[in-house]
């Protein structure tokens, strides 16, 4: 990812305008459950896919689910997924991802968001539905921004330089997220607009969407880690 794109889209200022694109940096760590050893890691960057036909548009989160459907996992594999998002999932994406997690109990998901997507009614219920489906939700801090800068950004060997108010904004957004998650979910409205359906893994069922970066990294011989940093 270009360093200017990263700063523009991931800057955690809730008052920003014009950031209609969602960027998703992901890590997929595969483990062999039988031997409790890591098998490898996949990293990449996705963003919204626009199309003149509204029914063929795809948010970054759903592009990732399509990408996941192409992985050939056998029953003994467990998958730990980490997302770094410029915006938290919108209500309909949250619903689709929640359904996916409930249908794939061998997949765990951690989400670090730079900002909260608050522009559609029901976003709170969407976040709570992700929590109830087993996803771990957090707000990005300087630690996560610096990690993304090193791993996903074409940074020209420049060090990450936090912008003004980064930590203060992160704390304020995190407090808002925790306030939302403390409430119990009562009802989640399923939107009627078209979105692809995702269930259990079905290799080859969906084509892989275009990505800005993607690579395969063999994992070092060590046990599962609880945090990528």
Tell me about this structure:
It is built from 6 helices and 6 strands, in the order αββαβαβαβααβ. It is globular and about 45 Å long. It has a 6-stranded mixed β-sheet with strand order 5-4-3-1-2-6, with helices on both faces. The chain has one domain: Cytidine Deaminase, domain 2, CATH 3.40.140.10. The C terminus is likely disordered. It has 229 residues and is an alpha/beta fold.
State the CATH superfamily name.
Cytidine Deaminase, domain 2
Query: Helical content, roughly?
Result: 25-40%
Total DSSP E strands: 6
Arithmetic mean of pLDDT: 79
CATH C-level class is: Alpha Beta
Distance between the termini: 19 Å
CATH architecture: 3-Layer(aba) Sandwich
The radius of gyration computed from the alpha-carbon positions, rounded to a whole number of angstroms, is: 17 Å
CATH topology: Cytidine Deaminase, domain 2
Task: Please give the count of helices.
Answer: 6
Into how many domains do the coordinates divide? 1
Order of helices and strands: HEEHEHEHEHHE
Principal-axis shape equals: globular
Low-confidence stretches: 186-229
Structural class: alpha/beta
Give, in spatial order, the strands making up the sheet with the most strands: 5-4-3-1-2-6
Quick one: biggest sheet? 6 strands, mixed
Question: Strand percentage, roughly?
Answer: 15-25%
EC number: 3.5.4.38
Organism: Echinops telfairi
Enzyme class: hydrolase
Catalytic activity: a 2'-deoxycytidine in single-stranded DNA + H2O + H(+) = a 2'-deoxyuridine in single-stranded DNA + NH4(+)
């Amino acid at each position: 990812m270009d360093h200017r794109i990263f700063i523009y889209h991931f800057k955690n200022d809730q008052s920003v305008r014009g950031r209609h694109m969602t960027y998703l940096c992901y890590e997929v760590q595969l483990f062999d459950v039988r031997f409790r050893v890591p098998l490898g890691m996949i990293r990449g960057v996705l963003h919204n896919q626009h199309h003149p036909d509204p029914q063929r548009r795809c948010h970054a989160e759903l592009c990732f689910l399509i990408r996941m459907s192409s992985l050939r996992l056998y029953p003994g594999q467990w998958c730990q997924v980490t997302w770094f998002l410029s915006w938290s999932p919108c209500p309909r994406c949250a619903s689709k991802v929640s359904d996916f997690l409930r249908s794939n109990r061998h997949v765990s998901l951690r989400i670090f968001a730079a900002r909260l997507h608050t522009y559609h009614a029901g976003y709170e219920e969407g976040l709570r539905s992700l929590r109830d489906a087993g996803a771990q939700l957090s707000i990005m801090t300087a630690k996560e921004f610096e990690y993304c800068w090193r791993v996903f950004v074409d940074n020209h060997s420049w060090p990450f330089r936090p912008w003004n108010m980064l930590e203060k904004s992160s704390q304020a957004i995190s407090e808002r997220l925790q306030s939302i998650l403390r409430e119990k979910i009562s009802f989640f409205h399923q939107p009627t607009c078209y979105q692809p359906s995702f269930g259990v893994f079905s290799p080859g069922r969906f084509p892989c969407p275009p990505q800005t970066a993607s690579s395969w990294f063999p994992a070092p011989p060590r046990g599962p880690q609880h945090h990528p940093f």
